[in-house]
Design goal:
Elements lengths: L1 H6 L1 E2 L8 E2 L12 H7 L4 H7 L16 H16 L9 E2 L1 H9 L5 H15 L4 E2 L1 H4 L16 H6 L4 H23 L4 H8 L3 H10 L7
Parallel strand pairs: 3-4
Antiparallel strand pairs: 1-2
């Protein structure tokens, strides 16, 4: 490896011919390699061959202005992969939801943002993702099936209309998915076909409600 980086040449095992390469190496790490060299846990000769130009990329929480660009890219990629036959399908994010995303600290950095966006797109009821769709999983309380609640109980408990409606929807989704998977022996593929959903969408919904299925 050191020879390839320094001389840009190498020989294959068992071969005497020297092969020259013309490549650029881009390496990334979340560790302090300089400190690791001092501690003797990273090779000094390799460090200096790699450390030609250093670019420090701050954590996502320190550059919230990048969040909208990343979100747009993740949504476009998700649509291409999951809806290849529907090129007109375009997801967007509501203004208040985007503000929430920009203010969230993202301890899991870009990987957490990507997972949040893809999960939201898979489970959303519309192409515009709202605050509830995009709230990171660490801030959510897992939805629970509604235990026989009634409109009268909701009013008596002074539950806001939207929250009461969401409880009913959550209960329906959980009950529907359980019945659907039971009917098809827990098979995700057959269940998705019967429900008119993609396998990815159904799998994410089942995961949300803690319902187990198989491929």
């Amino acid at each position: 490896l050191l020879r390839v980086l320094q001389e840009r040449e190498f020989e294959r095992i068992g071969d005497t011919r020297t092969i020259r390469v013309d490549v650029r190496v881009v390496a990334a790490t979340n560790s302090d390699l300089g400190r690791m060299v001092q501690d003797g846990t990273f090779r000094e000769d390799l460090y200096y061959r790699l450390s030609v130009v250093q670019v420090e990329l701050p954590a996502l929480r320190e550059r919230p202005e990048d969040v909208p660009l990343l979100v747009t890219s993740f949504l476009e990629d998700f649509a291409r992969r999951c809806y290849p036959d529907e090129p007109e399908k375009r997801f967007s994010v509501a203004t208040d939801a985007m503000a929430r995303l920009k203010s969230y600290p993202w301890p899991g950095n870009i990987r957490e943002l990507k997972n949040t966006i893809e999960r939201a797109a898979a489970m959303a009821d519309s192409l515009e993702l709202g605050v509830r769709d995009l709230l990171p999983s660490s801030q959510k309380t897992p939805a629970q099936p509604l235990p026989g609640g009634t409109a009268e109980q909701f009013v008596e408990d002074e539950l806001p209309f939207k929250e009461a409606k969401q409880k009913v929807l959550d209960a329906f989704e959980a009950a529907y998915l359980k019945a659907l998977l039971d009917k098809h022996g827990g098979n995700i593929t057959r269940s998705a076909q019967a429900a008119g959903l993609t396998r990815y969408h159904l799998r994410e919904l089942a995961k949300r409600y803690g319902i187990r299925g198989s491929d």
